[in-house]
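In the current project phase, the collection of sequences with tokenised folds has grown. A sample record is quoted in full directly below:
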Amino acid sequence: MTATDLTTELNSLANPTKAAFLQGFFKTGKGQYAEGDKFLGITVPEQRKIARKYSSLELKELKQVISSPIHEHRLTALEILVMQYEKADEKDKGRIVSFYLQNRKHINNWDLVDLSAPYILGDWLVNNDRSILYGLVKSKDLWDRRIAVVSTYAFIRNNDYGDILRLAKLLMKDEHDLIHKAVGWMLREVGKRSEPVLEKFLDRNCKAMPRTMLRYAIERLPKDKRRKFLKY
């Protein structure tokens, strides 16, 4: 199996009507966050089915797929990468993480980040040096910053909240709505596991938080607590 086989199979499932909708949904117009991204109009379940079929594709072949201008090509490559990472030993996990980081310029929409960052980079950093996150979060590139934030989901699932709380404070003045949403989402995940940790953070920081970030963070709190934080 080759990169050409994979992309040819994906191309055969193209649906122009769905593609037109997705290009609007994912903000691909001039000046928007995903300007120029191209879609075939393939559903995620269809892509995952194909990813399973090509799950043994070598990294040199995946490099061709992940660098494609077609969104579904890149998403399917990332699905394969996640599958390979889950089955890999420590040495090969390290190789996959390096590949992921080296090709992150192609991980350039929120769905691509969200389906991959926690399960590759985040999982790797559970037991490795996390300083890379603090480099990514300072990047001018929107998607680098989102990768840093969403990767912390792997820690949060292990009741390890320190990094997302530190990153959240660093991103209080970020100008992009997609970062506000990502940080708020991760804080909400903290709150689902420990309301006291989230509330302590909000007591100290909610006045400085962008409104979208705050609303996402408090979404699962009781109504009276949501009202309290929104009044600040």
Observations:
- The chain has a mean pLDDT of 96.
- Residues 134 and 166 are 9 Å apart (CA to CA).
